[in-house]
């Protein structure tokens, strides 16, 4: 089977920055491709190019075999897009939002109403169907937005940070929804800032940093590279930190890092914990703290790139909506 | 979608229950998409209290205030004669102000990513713009109708009857069509809806007041009178008065048509270009 997406050497420059600096990426048909990267790494730009909203400056990309630049209409017939900011029509009801899109897809009037009802039901919005989307909660808007992107029965669905800003409950709901899509045989390209989300949902992960792919592979391969967990040890006597680092490095096999008081190292195997405790004990080092925790995205990035995720000039702050869109 | 359109997907669902997108965008598809997005634009009138208020309360207030506050002082014939003079002017003024809304709505839709949603669908690229403009043309007609209804309620009975009313409405709509491209251009050029609202309406004050809308320009200082004489709004209002109350029509109509042509010739290409760049 052909790949759902094939992108080669995509470059996109904005006035004074390069959002994509030559990205190659492939999405296997029927699988979930997770694009993982911090704010400003180029995820949205990537999605906008692949959904024909933005033209690349260099490189080429095909979606379902069609070129995004020369055959945008054919691409649009294949895809569904749920952007980073839920773009529902606030003044229209849930039903009206979906009926409109179904009609634009060429559904008959009754066909459009039936499709809208079916999707509202599926996303637990039936009760709110007759209300203006303005009155919906954040989670409901995301679900309506997602429903809107499924109206045309796409072969390929783009989800740009579908859970950013959602509470943990809504996030779990969204994950279930995405898993449900896969049963329909839809190929999904999902962008996220959360390693855990990519781990949960994606079959393949591409890690994007400053507009470049810095790592790719299965979640397991990636975690093997970055460590699944972080071992954190704080000696009661800060003077013994150097000894602690030596032990932590020896046991984890990873390069240790430290703050003023604490030693950190990425670990893949929980069994290191008792081993570290034993060796610290042998040396007579008393502990103030010993924890095993999930790595933050920063730590994953540090492991993969050698630099933290947030030291890029121009800032990594959540870009305001207006910066995310094409302006010129 | 018409029968000629097909889908390339191997398992094409029946048109009744499934998507049925054209392989190519045909003119017929463009018209259909444009019509659907016009419907979308009109659905919003019902749902937006501000719009309903703008469409009803504003004309009532303007017509009522101008006729009864200034009426007796403005005309030897009493407020009734000022009423007949001013109703066509208020109709024009209301529509001209309503064109600002076109730019504001466009800007809002783009900023909220609504147009992105449409642009990622297999629909004609121009359809969202067509829908926005056509929907607003309907709003303009409703605005004129509302002013005329208020006028009717306070005794405005133009000699020319229904034909005159329809003709006068057509004239102001013609001009509004030209002007809405200016507003659309601003909506696509400026960053925020707020900016569009401010920059869009600032011009509207001199344009509508320094004209024959409320008083005869002959009574203005000569420099302002000179401006009022070339002001397109003067020509629009004069044409409407001619059609409704009797008086010269041909000359102001020609000027109105000329201005509309100029506005459209300049701002239609600018707006569509800005649309292609931004939306
Ligand atoms: N329309 C635009 N104009 C100027 N710069 C932009 C625009 N869109 C994105 N950028 C810049 O490109 C970079 C990548 O942005 P984006 O693709 O939105 O990243 P992400 O979605 O990963 O947060 C950022 O530095 C951003 O500021
Ligand atoms: Mg983004």
Structure commentary:
- The complex is a heterodimer of chains A (328) and B (279).
- Chain A is an alpha/beta fold and 328 residues long.
- Chain A folds into two domains: 5-223, 3-Layer(aba) Sandwich (Rossmann fold); 228-294, Alpha-Beta Plaits (2-Layer Sandwich), CATH 3.30.70.
- Chain A is built from twelve helices and 14 strands.
- In chain A, helix 3 (94-104) crosses helix 4 and helix 9 packs antiparallel against helix 10 (272-283).
- Chain B is built from eleven helices and no strands.
- The longest helix of chain B is centred in the middle third of the chain and has 34 residues, at 78-111.
- Chain B is mostly helical and 279 residues long.
- Chain B has helices at 27-47, 49-74, 78-111, 114-119, 127-153, 161-189, 193-202, 204-209, 222-230, 232-245, 250-278.
- Chain B has one domain.
- The interface between A and B is large, with 42 and 42 residues.
- Adenosine-5'-diphosphate (ADP) binds at residues 14-15, 17, 19, 37, 39-45, 314, 319, 323-327 of chain A.
- Magnesium ion is lined by residues 43-44, 84, 160-161 of chain A.
Please supply descriptive tags for the structure shown above.
heterodimer; A: 328 residues; alpha/beta; Rossmann fold; Alpha-Beta Plaits; 2 domains; six-stranded mixed beta sheet; four-stranded antiparallel beta sheet; 12 helices; 25% strand; elongated; disordered C terminus; B: 279 residues; mainly alpha; 11 helices; 76% helix; disordered N terminus; binds adenosine-5'-diphosphate; binds magnesium ion; membrane (chain A)
């Amino acid at each position: 089977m052909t790949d759902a997406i094939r992108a080669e050497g995509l470059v996109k420059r904005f006035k004074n920055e390069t959002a994509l600096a030559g990205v190659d990426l492939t999405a296997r048909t029927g699988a979930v491709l997770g694009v993982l990267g911090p704010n400003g790494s180029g995820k949205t730009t990537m999605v906008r190019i692949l959904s024909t909203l933005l033209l690349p400056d260099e490189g080429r990309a095909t979606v379902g075999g069609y070129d995004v630049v020369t055959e945008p209409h054919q691409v649009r017939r294949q895809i569904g897009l749920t952007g980073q900011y839920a773009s529902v029509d606030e003044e229209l009801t849930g039903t009206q939002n979906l009926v409109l899109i179904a009609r634009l897809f060429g559904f008959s009037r009754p066909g459009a109403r039936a499709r809208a009802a079916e999707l509202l039901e599926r996303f637990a919005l039936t009760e709110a169907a007759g209300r203006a989307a303005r009155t919906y909660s954040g989670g409901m808007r995301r679900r309506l937005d997602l429903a809107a992107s499924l109206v045309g029965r796409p072969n390929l669905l783009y989800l740009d940070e579908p859970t950013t800003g959602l509470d943990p409950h809504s996030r779990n709901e969204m994950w279930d929804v995405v898993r449900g899509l896969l049963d329909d045989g839809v190929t999904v390209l999902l962008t996220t800032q959360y390693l855990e989300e990519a781990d949960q949902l994606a079959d393949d992960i591409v890690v994007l940093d400053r507009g470049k792919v810095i790592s790719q592979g299965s979640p397991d391969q990636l975690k093997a590279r970055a460590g699944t967990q972080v071992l954190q040890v704080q000696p009661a006597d800060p003077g013994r930190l150097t000894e602690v680092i030596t032990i932590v490095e020896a046991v984890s096999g990873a390069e240790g890092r430290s703050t003023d008081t604490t030693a950190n190292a990425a670990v893949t195997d929980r069994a290191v914990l008792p081993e570290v405790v034993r060796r610290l004990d042998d040396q007579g080092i008393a502990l103030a703290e010993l924890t095993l925790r999930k790595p933050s995205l920063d730590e994953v990035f540090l492991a993969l790139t050698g630099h933290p995720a947030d030291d890029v000039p121009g800032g990594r702050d959540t870009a305001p909506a207006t910066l995310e869109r094409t302006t010129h | 979608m018409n029968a000629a359109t097909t889908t390339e997907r191997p398992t094409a669902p029946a048109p009744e229950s499934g998507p049925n997108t054209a392989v190519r965008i045909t003119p017929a598809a463009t018209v259909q998409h444009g019509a659907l997005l016009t419907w979308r634009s009109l659905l919003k009138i019902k749902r937006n209290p501000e719009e309903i208020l703008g469409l009803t309360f504003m004309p009532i207030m303007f017509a009522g205030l101008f006729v009864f506050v200034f009426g007796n002082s403005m005309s030897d014939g009493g407020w009734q004669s000022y009423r007949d003079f001013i109703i066509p002017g208020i109709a024009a003024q209301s529509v001209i102000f309503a064109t600002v809304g076109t730019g504001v709505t466009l800007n809002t839709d783009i900023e909220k990513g609504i147009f992105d949603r449409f642009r990622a669908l297999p629909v004609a690229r121009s359809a969202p713009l067509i829908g926005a403009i056509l929907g607003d043309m309907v709003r303009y007609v409703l605005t004129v109708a509302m002013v005329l209804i208020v006028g009717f309620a306070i005794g405005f009975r133009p000699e020319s009857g229904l034909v005159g009313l329809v003709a006068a409405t057509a004239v102001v709509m013609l001009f509004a069509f030209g002007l809405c491209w200016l507003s659309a251009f601003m909506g696509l050029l400026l960053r925020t809806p707020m900016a569009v609202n401010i920059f869009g309406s600032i011009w509207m004050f001199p344009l509508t007041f320094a004209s024959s809308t409320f008083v005869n320009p002959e009574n203005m200082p000569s420099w302002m009178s000179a401006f009022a004489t070339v002001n397109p709004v003067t020509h629009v209002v004069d044409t409407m008065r001619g059609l409704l109350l009797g008086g010269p029509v041909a000359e102001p109509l020609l000027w109105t048509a000329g201005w509309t042509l100029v506005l459209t010739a300049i701002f239609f290409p600018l707006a569509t270009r800005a649309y292609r760049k931004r939306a």
